[in-house]
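To: structure subgroup
Subject: Chain for Friday's discussion

All,

I'm putting the inputs and outputs inline so they're searchable in the archive.
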Amino acid sequence: MKIVRLLILSIFISLSASLFAVTLSKEMEEAVDICKSISDGFLTYDLAKIKNGNERLKKIGINDWSTLHLSKGKELNINGHLLFDEVFLDSIIKNHKHIVFAQKYLKQRGVRGVSSGRKSKIKMTTKGLPAGGAASWKASGSNSAEIALVAEPRGLLTMTIRDEKGKSLFTETVKNKKGDSVRKIKVTLPKTRTRFFIEVKNYGDATSFALISR
C-alpha cells in the first residue's frame, strides 16, 4: 500500500507541474529558447553555440525595449556580463574580452532602436541585478501580456507582475521561490491600455538577464 500511495503522489506531482507550466505564444517561446541557447553557450564559452544563437536572434528580428522605465530598486552595471544583443554578440565572437564593454553596447542598442524591416511583436532588453538585489520596471499594455526572462549562466531569479494598485497579477509558486534561470508569465490585462509593474528578485550572484515581452 505504501508503494501505491507513493506512486499516486508521484503522478499527482507530475500532473500538477504540467498544469502550472506556462506556455507562451510560438514567437515568445522561440525568443526564450534562443536566449537560453545563448546563455548555455556562454557557460562553457561554446563559440559555435553562441554564433548559432545569434544568427537565430537576427533572423526573428526582436525589437528594442530599452525604454522600459525603472520604477524601484537599483540596476546592475552589466560590464563583464552577458548582453542579449546581436551587435554585442558579434563582437564577443571575435574577441571575448569585449564583454567588459557590455554597458556601452547596451546604450548603443537603445540608440539604434528598431532596425528597419523588423515586423516582430517581440520586444527585448537586457537588465542586471546585484547579488540579492531586486527591482521593478513599469510597462503598459492591454488585454493580455506575455513576459519572460532568461538569465545569464547560473542566474537565479523570480518574477512577479503587479497592477497600478500593487495587486499581484502573478506571483511565484512555492516551488520557484528560490529562483530559476528562466521565468515565463502570461497575464490578463484590462481592455484599455494600462500600466503594470514587473518585479524581479535575484537569489544568486550578480547577474544580467534578458527581459522579453509580447
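Points worth raising on Friday:
Confidence is low (pLDDT under 50) at residues 2-20.
The radius of gyration is 18 Å.

D.
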